[in-house]
Amino acid sequence: MTVTLADVAARARVSPATVSRVLNGNYPVAESTRERVLRAVDELDYVLNGPASSLAAATSDLVGVLVNDIADPFFGIMASAAQSAIGEGASGRGGGEKLAVVCNTGGSPARELTYLTLLQRQRAAAVILMGGSLEAPEHLAATTAKLAKLAEAGTRVVLCGRPPVTGDANAAALVFDNRTGARRLTEHLLGLGHRRIGYAAGPGDRTTTRHRLEGHRDALAAAGVPEGPTVHGAYDRRAGYEATAELLARDPELTAVVAANDTVALGVCAALRERGLDIPGDVSVAGFDDLPFSVDAVPSLTTVHLPLHEAGVRAGRLAMGTEEPLAGGLEQVSAELVVRGSTGRPRTRG
């Protein structure tokens, strides 16, 4: 049975005109009403049809690229590379390029599902989800169900830096080897002689955070070294700055701090310098991702290199079907240790 606009209106307890306004985005609608309408669209699996089929066809050249924060270079590099790859000879129905739209979720699980619903309604040619995911079971189940609906409708689904979960069989996945990268980073510090290592971690409910912490802890356990203090926060400079105060309060004799990413590491460095501590003479600092600014930091950051540009290009080509996924659909992307000036042998602080 075909779902109509009236069915959506009835489910959302609004008028058909309100549903139309929400879906077309051409008239102000209260946020609570908008969310109710989009939830009804999702629950009823409503897609434009009938007289609107020509509009659906006209927008089928759309490609959605979902990121947590486009201002974060981690996402900006991948999204830019993917957008360039999408335009490499990918022709739309009118002979032009595909329209790649970057959707900034702000890390909101509700916003992520909203964008996926809107892309489904527009019959997007492809969807790329970038970065780690929220580990809440309800959100994972809802996202998996939504991605399955998109795939069933012919939308290519690509996960870039996002581990697949059970049910994501139709998605091509590029998975960063965060565990190995984090393990090698901590092994590097242990090899220098560090035994009191703090960790400025990312949000505790994200897959990237968990995998990097697991690699760090694996290295400590293998060396028989007790785990130092861990503080969770956002993936930004301020979080690193604030985490440093707590880490030093919990263990004033720390000789090294591992940061969730390079941006957090900058905050750690600022907080250490403010306390008169030398890097790496008093405290070594290490980041993750090898973002462009890491080599120009003072001192330059020891970090883990992820091939973000290459991963973005590969994701864009998979989304367009100009390259085929590996057998099984899952590809592991290597993470390589890069040693620079921010880490050194520990010395006793007097």
TrEMBL record:
Record organism: Streptomyces venezuelae (strain ATCC 10712 / CBS 650.69 / DSM 40230 / JCM 4526 / NBRC 13096 / PD 04745)
Protein name, UniProt field: Ribose operon repressor
Sorted UniProt keywords: DNA-binding, Transcription, Transcription regulation
CDD domains in the cross-refs: HTH_LacI, PBP1_LacI_sugar_binding-like
One Gene Ontology molecular-function label: DNA-binding transcription factor activity
Keyword DNA-binding appears in the UniProt entry: yes
One Pfam family matching this protein: Peripla_BP_3
Domain (HTH lacI-type) ranges: 3-57
Gene3D superfamilies: 3.40.50.2300, lambda repressor-like DNA-binding domains
Domain of life the protein comes from: Bacteria
InterPro entries listed in its UniProt record: HTH_LacI, LacI/GalR-like_sensor, Lambda_DNA-bd_dom_sf, Peripla_BP_I
